[in-house]
Write a structure and sequence with these properties.
single chain, alpha/beta, Rossmann fold, seven-stranded mixed sheet, binds thiamine diphosphate, binds magnesium ion
């Protein structure tokens, strides 16, 4: 998507809705924006069909506001709550069969590199914890082993939110959910640590309670993936519906997790550290 692509031809100028025209005139395309600017520009996503207080939609909003080049970005998703917001946002978006996101993203990234050899086209996987830690784990790890230059973002609500509350590999041990009535029997899968040993050159673990940090690490992860190798961002996006807390408590729950399973963590190779010094 570029401003040129979405600029209406003269004949359509007066019949297109205001929302569309705002996106052309006040959107983030070709006009760098960040999390700091939220509220002052027409965002890639401004409405969503999620539950009140949804952490996933907040995570998506923050991540989309942090794309270094939204006009040259392709977001790759998979079934899960995130699909419903991403598929109606103004970013190039491809959905995949559940769990296949990193394999499809690999193909799309390679294709875009061949088609646009002189341009950066950012391919960003944005999916739930179940999509990465469970059904898509092998395809995710293999994309990292192969050093594909894509960014993988996990929107971790620690549950299969979209299908009514089954436990995911990322649910906390002991967590009781609608469809895990006796409590989860094993620990959260250490996907963050697996990313480091499987070939990711940069990783960050954050929560939606720290929007500036989310903005910074998402941007860095995408820029690093352009130049150096695979990157991973894991965002805690609490789910009021399945974790059964009031919808106005999402940030509080995320803050509490920052003292526990979501303390801030970051890893990077020496090459990445050097690169970050210069941007
Ligand atoms: C092959 C396949 N298996 C199962 C499903 C059903 N399914 C859709 S979404 C989902 C769970 C998604 O959980 P997660 O990735 O954590 O995303 P969330 O909804 O929590 O954001 C499942 C099991 C499917 N669509 N395709
Ligand atoms: Mg989930």
């Amino acid at each position: 998507m570029s401003v040129r692509n979405i600029t209406p031809v003269k004949e359509f100028e007066d019949i297109l809705p205001k929302e569309y025209k705002d996106l052309v005139n006040k959107g983030p395309f070709n006009n760098k924006k960040s999390v700091d600017d939220l509220g002052t520009f027409k965002e890639i996503i401004e409405e969503h069909p999620h539950c009140a207080g949804c952490g996933v939609s907040l995570g998506i909003r923050l991540a989309l506001a942090s794309l270094p080049s939204p006009e040259d970005s392709l977001v790759v998703g998979t079934p899960g709550c995130s699909f419903f917001a991403l598929s109606q946002s103004a970013v190039n978006y491809s959905n995949t069969a559940f769990g296949n996101q990193n394999a499809v993203a690999t193909g799309l990234k390679r294709m875009l590199q061949i088609r646009y050899p002189d341009k950066h086209k950012d391919v960003i996987v944005m999916v739930g914890d179940g999509g990465i830690a469970d059904i898509g784990l092998d395809l995710t790890l293999h994309s990292w082993f192969r050093k594909e230059k894509i960014t993988t973002i996990m929107l971790d609500n620690e549950v299969y939110g979209n299908t009514g509350g089954q436990e995911s590999g990322m649910s906390m041990k002991g967590r009781v959910l609608n469809m895990a009535p006796t409590g989860k029997k094993f620990d959260k899968i250490p996907v963050f640590d697996m990313a480091e040993v499987s070939g990711c050159v940069y990783g960050a673990r954050v929560t939606v309670a720290n929007p500036k940090k989310v903005g910074q690490v998402v941007r860095n992860a995408i820029l690093i993936a352009r130049e150096i190798g695979p990157t991973y961002v894991q965002i805690f996006t609490p789910c009021p519906t399945n974790m059964k807390f009031p919808p106005d408590q999402t940030i509080k729950i995320a803050k509490e997790a920052q003292k526990d399973q979501y303390s801030y963590k970051e890893f990077m190779t020496d090459e990445v550290a050097e690169y970050l010094k210069n941007i």
